[in-house]
Each structure stands twice: as structure tokens, then as C-alpha cells.
Amino acid sequence: AATAADRSVRAPLPVLGRDVTVPLVTGGEVAYAALDYAASAPALQRVWDDVAAYAPYYGSVHRGAGYLSQLSTDLFENARRTVAGFLDCRETDQVVFTRSTTDSLNLLARALPAGCRVFVFETEHHAALLPWRHAGVTCLDAPRTPGQAVETLERALAGREPHGPALVCVTGASNVTGELWPVRELAAAAHAHGARIVLDAAQLAPHHPVSVQDLDVDWVAFSGHKLYAPFGSGVLAGRADWLRAAEPYLAGGGASRRVARRADGGVDVEWHESAARHEAGSPNVIGAHAVASACRALTEAGFDTLVAREQHLIRKVRDGLAEVPEVRVLSLFGDDAPRVGVLSFVVEGWNSSHFAAALSAEYGIGVRDGLFCAHPLVRTLLGSDPRTRGECGAPGAAPGETSLDAVRVSFGAGTPDEHVERFVRAVR
Ligand code: PMP
Hints:
The protein is α/β, with parallel strands linked by helices and 428 residues long. Helix content is 36%, strand content 17%.
């Protein structure tokens, strides 16, 4: 019998959308099982409540002397402090509100110092692989163990010519395999070779505590919509110096401290040195407030509890899939590698998009199929060259042929046991 402690570990956090029912091709209806958290997680009820509580009092940020404008400004700046606390930032770090992880990494790409070379593993999500191309990228081979990742990085950094500024961009948890990367060790390697490191925490932050100081990373990026706060905000947090020295990401009001018309008809501008430098225009105060609300909710629930519950769900999925001989779970670091609640697999004799469509139509389960915006990684994992059908998709295979892409199931703090149990039954 489950003890009270077991039950509390296993209680999912209340999220929206659990009351959605969908029709089945076999007849009748079923409660929708969202098992695509890695794409976008449902909003926490708590986040929704906090947004609803603020929405009637919405006002412009940093723009007015009126009461509601000041309230919004306080909310926005408090959200910044909450996020800094959630990420355990250094006193001198800046927290910039962006639209998403993609936006955050593109912002940092614009702030690279002259001559900076960027090092990324080929295993990265396209959002972490592509923004640096203008600067010069060294794309590293997919490692087969966490130790090999560190060795590969050290070798690449030690051999770089000339020995100028360098940035390493690495994921904390893969959006394809869910595997955890050795971030602390990679950060130590980067720093030992005079490089800086940015952590793509899009898949890590919703599942594990992320401490900038403990991991000793220079920047962290994550997305609100994967952290149960789908209101259009993301975060870039970390060292202020490169951000302060860079041209603003967007030019406009809010980023500028002083603007004047020159005698020759030109325009002079003095930019802010704070995070506002990269937040031109009226910021998304609701989005920032929602992210902060999610940070508070996850912290209060406790990551120990959330991790224990998620590991319990991962075991259920792993054990269930292991009983189906046609299923191959994808992994870089080996079957027992620690991971978050993200698993991709191929099913012998099945086209992944047909498989995902069947899970939806026959069982009311929403998963993802394709190449997950990580073409080189999926290519390495499948040992084949997927012909791309689009940015994030693949052509799939004819019925009866194994796909050149994969199915991904992902879950988190709002997932009840019943959803993963239904998924396992459906796959069987
Ligand atoms: N990095 C990783 C590891 C991701 O999983 C994603 C989203 N799939 C991104 C970056 C990009 O996030 P967003 O689409 O929110 O910008």
C-alpha cells in the first residue's frame, strides 16, 4: 500500500487542460493525455491564477507615473528578481526577458565580442546550433559518453587558433533523448581554456534545479512555455559584461537613456547598461510575471519531490517500452544514462507519423514525431540520413517500413500516472 509520503511524491501539480476530452476513431471520448511537454508544457493552475489576478490591473512598464503603471513596473522588476533567485544567479548577473530560448540565444549571438569562436556539439537543438553561424562555429562530434563530451570539448578548445575569445553552447538535457549532459564538467573545461559557456536549459529547467553558481555557467537560457508559463516570455540570465558592451538586440524606446538630434541631422543615442538595453519596446509584463509565478510554484513544490515523481513515471515508460521488442529507445549515453521525462523511440515496421497519429486517434494521446529540430542528432542516433520534409519534420516511411525519424513522449510535473499507463498500453 502506498504510504502518505509516496502519495504526496506522486501527486501531479495541477495544470490546465486536464478537462479536455477528445473523440476517438473507435467511438466515444477520452480525456486528452498531453505527453508532449518537451514541445510545450501545460500552464500550471497557479500560473493561470496569478496571471488572472494581475490582468485587470495591467499597465505599461517603466512608462508612467500612474498607479497601474507603477504596479506593472514593480511586477516586472520583481519577476526579474524571482528569476535571478530561481537560477541562483551571481549578484552582478543580468536577467533579460526575451520571447523564448531561441530569442535568448540569438540575443547572446549578437553580443559576442569580435573574433569570438563558438563551440557546439552537433547534438544541439537548432536553436543552439544555428544562431552563431555569422561568428564562426566549430561543430563537435556527438560524444558517446559524458566523459567523451568533456574530452572532445577540451581538445577542441586547446587546439583553437588563434587563442581569442570563445563561447561554448551546450544543452542541459536533450530535447530528443532527455539525457542529462555533464554541464558542470563542461563549464570547468571551458573556463580552464579561457572560454565562456551558455547553458541551453530549455529542457533542464522544467525538471531540475539550475544553479548558475553551482554549475558555474556564464549564461542560462530557457523558455516560459516549457516551464508551465505559456505567455510568450523567455529568459537569458548571466554575465553583464558582454551584454553591456553589445549593441542593443532591438533598437527602440526603453533601451535608450538619452537620444538627441545632431546638428548634422543624424541621431545620437546613449543606451542603457542594464537589462533594459536588450528589452526595447513595451515588454511582455504578463509573460514575465507568469515565468516568475512558475519559478515560485516549482520551488515551493520542491525539485526533490518533482524529480522523484518524474523518475517514477520514467520507470513506468521504460519498463513498458522494454516489453515491446519492436521498440528501440534512442540514447547517446546508454540505456541507463540519467534523463528527464523525455524519450524518443522508433518502432520497427512503423512510420513514426502514422504511429503518433494512431496514438492520438485511438487513445487520445498527444506525442511528437519527426526530427525534433535536431537533425544532426537524430541522424547520429538512427545511424542514417533522414531526408528532411521540413524544418522539424522528416519524410517518414511507407506503411510497413521503419521510419527515418522517431516518436517522442515527454511529461512532467502535471502528468498523472494514468497518462503514461495509457501510453504504454497503447504502444503494446
Ligand atoms: N533548446 C532546446 C533543448 C529545446 O528543446 C527547444 C524547444 N524545443 C529550444 C531550445 C527552443 O525553444 P523555443 O522554441 O521556446 O525558443
